Amino acid sequence: MQQLERQLRFDDLTGLLSRQAFYQDFEVGAAAGDVLIFIDLDDFKSVNDNYGFGIGDDLLTGIARTIRCAVAGRGLVCRLAGDEFMVLLDRAHAACVEVICTDLLAAIRGCTSRVGDLEVSRGALIGTCRVRQGMSARDALMIANDGLRVAKANGKNRAAQVSERRHASGPVRPSVEEVRLGLRRNEIGYHLQPILDLATGDVWGYEALIRWHRADGQVLGPAHFLESMTAAYDAETKPPLAQAHAAAAWAANTQGKCVSFNISTAFLANLGADGLDWVNTIIGDIPHGNVVFELVDTIVTRDDDDAIARTVRMLRDLGVQIALDDFGVGQSTLSRLQTTCVDYVKIDKRFTAAAGRSRRDAAILERTIDLAHAAGATCIVEGIETPAQLQRARKAGAGLGQGFHLGRPNPVSHWAAAQGT
């Protein structure tokens, strides 16, 4: 009986508390002011895939030992599942939680398993939650998991804490299951934001922006759910192509305007020789000449530039127009303008906002527009939110503009009613 109780209480591989035992001890002994620390190892699956489960188990055992030493009697340590661990830090040490998390990240990164001449190691992500009176282990874990998601969004080998108030207002990232349900309910679709000809004030075209109208009334932009939506795709769950086609058809076929969609450079780099059949899949039955693909830079290697440039040439030969999005920040710099022929350059809204602060910043906006013109592209100034910004964009020589002052993103039904169509 004692042996059975021990097997239930402790994890077989690491000797740490099991999930069940941790939950039981939490319900009995957790106090307000304690801190739950949720640890998730970075890309641990690749250890098992590349080196086998024996090496994976060896590294997990070493990491478990390292976590237990780092906590050093200041709280409970549990292996939650797979490559996930939990620590319940006593409130007496809660003031040092940031230091402890930093020490944990360093200790985990320093734990290695040898494979021949190789030393295999992994970093970790950490989310934390300060326990309040009456909080269950599962509720604390959910909040700590939100912190972990924040840490993941900021990069690897990091820790983050999310307040209970922020958690209560909605998860940092909706789950894959929530996104699947939203897709099945047709809650995820496209808004259109107008792009204006700054010389005439007429609508030149629209940018199609994906939005999620949740059942609880929230409207989420892509930063909140795109990663989960991509992970949700399977044989039964497809992207909202019908909504994309409807938005494109109204803008191009009904209004005769251009419609732009964001396309990641990583997607273009991975196309290889697959051709351009995907174009109609995205845009539906509209003329290619009314389509603009905005290149959104993601992490690509220098070798990918040739593949991206080839695909862009194929798209332009097809009649599709190309825009370079968010020019001037991130990877959308002069190098992309040098390697890729584009029809439009979208000047990032930070330049628009800064131009009102000083003559120097205004001159930077003007020279950036001149640079795009020198490359043979038309400029679209983003982030025009005031009459003064509109005036500055016109004075700087921009041909097109986009921003809340010119028109906010709205569903097709809004624009159809405004146009009487």
Provide key terms for this protein:
single chain; 421 residues; alpha/beta; eight-stranded mixed barrel; five-stranded mixed beta sheet; 18 helices; 17 strands; 22% strand; elongated
Give a short overview.
The protein is α/β, with parallel strands linked by helices. The protein is 44% helix and 22% strand. The relative contact order is 0.08.
What would you say this structure looks like, in words?
By secondary structure, the chain is an alpha/beta fold. It has helices at residues 2-9, 19-29, 45-51, 53-71, 97-110, 137-153, 164-168, 176-184, 222-232, 241-254, 265-269, 278-283, 304-318, 334-339, 349-354, 359-374, 387-395, 412-419, and strands at 35-41, 75-81, 84-89, 113-115, 118-120, 124-130, 158-161, 188-197, 203-213, 219-220, 258-264, 291-296, 321-327, 344-347, 378-381, 400-401, 410-411. The chain has 18 helices and 17 strands. Helix 3 runs antiparallel to helix 4 (53-71) and helix 8 (176-184) crosses helix 9 (222-232).
